[in-house]
Specification:
Layout lengths: L2 H8 L10 E3 L7 E2 L5 E11 L10 H18 L3 E11 L4 H17 L3 E9 L3 E11 L14 E4 L5 H11 L5 H12 L5 H6 L4 E6 L4 H12 L2 E5 L7 H6 L2 H10 L6 E5 L4 H9 L6 E7 L6 E4 L2 E2 L12
GO biological process, one term: thiamine biosynthetic process
Keywords: ATP-binding, Kinase, Magnesium, Metal-binding, Nucleotide-binding, Thiamine biosynthesis, Transferase
Family: Belongs to the thiamine-monophosphate kinase family.
């Protein structure tokens, strides 16, 4: 099988077909129609074998994960996902692997009504680059720069499970079979908070998705908003699998500083708290308040039981 046979077999005519796509796979460029009074949100992520996923990851999980982490960026902006371009570098063509990989990608694309409209395939070390696009009403996008002193800091779900999956494998931690399976599922199949992001438009003052660790990603909001924060580590939500598997200090470090969670981290004013909670409850999301925005630009103040607590290592950063 050669490049164009691969494209025709696994992508052309498969998956979602949106009415706002005039030209999709098969031309030099795709042609799409952006709705009136909307802005186009664009994000790009690259996943590299051995850096972002283990070599033995099931291909269906890899297809899901590759698209999910991009949709999470759109969710953090309050955007509706619409179109995706895929750059796929493969060491060789393995039809069975490709069938599973593309099936995993098509499944999550169908769930969020996203059409794969083009891309590129080439030979080399396994690398997946996705450019995801979405639309958001003009002037309504969530950004990192709107946090204000007094705003409350929230997350949309448990943190640290993906970290548990990675570190338990690297360090041979003796997890129970159910805890290991639960943690690995969170790493392989992240669930981008797309509906929650759209619900937060006009309510949250700032937002970001948690990919590099809660503290590292919160720091992006604080720098862009010229404020600092007080975080209650004992309020950070963690799963039973994480709490039961390793000592509490270690679990908190994974939840606070590791990343790969793809929950939303956002700020909201006192006036908007009740409407925010009501809106997210409609989507089955239980928002958890973990701290508050403070004046200044010093380091994040981390508390446990209202007492100062040592700051764990920062989140993941390439080339650090």
């Amino acid at each position: 099988m050669k490049e164009f046979e691969l494209i025709n077999r696994y992508f052309t005519g498969r998956g979602v077909t949106r009415r706002d796509v005039d030209v999709g796979i098969g031309d030099d460029c795709a042609l799409v129609n952006v709705p009136d009074n909307c802005q186009l949100a664009i994000t790009t992520d690259t996943l590299v074998e051995g850096v972002h996923f283990f070599a033995d990851i099931p291909p269906r999980a890899l297809g899901h994960r590759a698209l999910a982490v991009n949709l999470s960026d759109l969710a953090a902006m309050g955007a509706e996902p619409t179109w995706v371009s895929l750059g796929l570098t493969l060491p060789k063509i393995d039809p069975e692997w490709l069938e599973e990989f593309t099936e995993g990608m098509h499944e999550i694309a169908e769930y969020f009504n996203v059409q794969i409209i083009g891309g590129d395939t080439t030979q080399g070390p396994l690398t997946i680059t996705i450019c995801a696009k979405g639309t958001v009403p003009k002037g309504k996008a969530l950004t990192r720069s709107g946090a204000n002193v007094g705003d409350w800091i929230y997350v949309t779900g448990n943190l640290g499970d993906a970290a548990l999956a990675i570190e338990s494998r690297k360090n041979n931690w003796p997890l129970s079979e159910s805890d290991a399976a639960s943690a690995l599922k969170k790493f392989h199949y992240p669930s981008p908070r797309v509906a929650a992001g759209q619900a937060l438009r006009g309510i949250a003052s700032s937002a970001i998705d948690i990919s590099d660790g809660l503290l590292a990603d919160l720091s992006h909001i604080l720098r862009r908003s010229d404020v600092t924060a007080q975080i209650h580590a004992d309020k950070v939500p963690m799963s039973d699998a994480l709490r039961h598997s390793i000592p509490q200090d270690q679990a908190l470090k994974l939840a606070l500083a590791y990343g790969d969670d793809y929950e939303l981290l956002y700020t909201v004013s006192q006036d908007n708290k009740l409407i925010m909670e009501s809106k997210l409850h409609q989507y089955g999301v239980e928002p958890i308040c973990i701290g508050q925005i403070q004046p200044g630009n010093d380091d994040i103040e981390l508390l446990y039981d209202n007492q100062p607590w040592l700051l764990p290592e920062s989140g993941f950063e390439h080339f650090s």
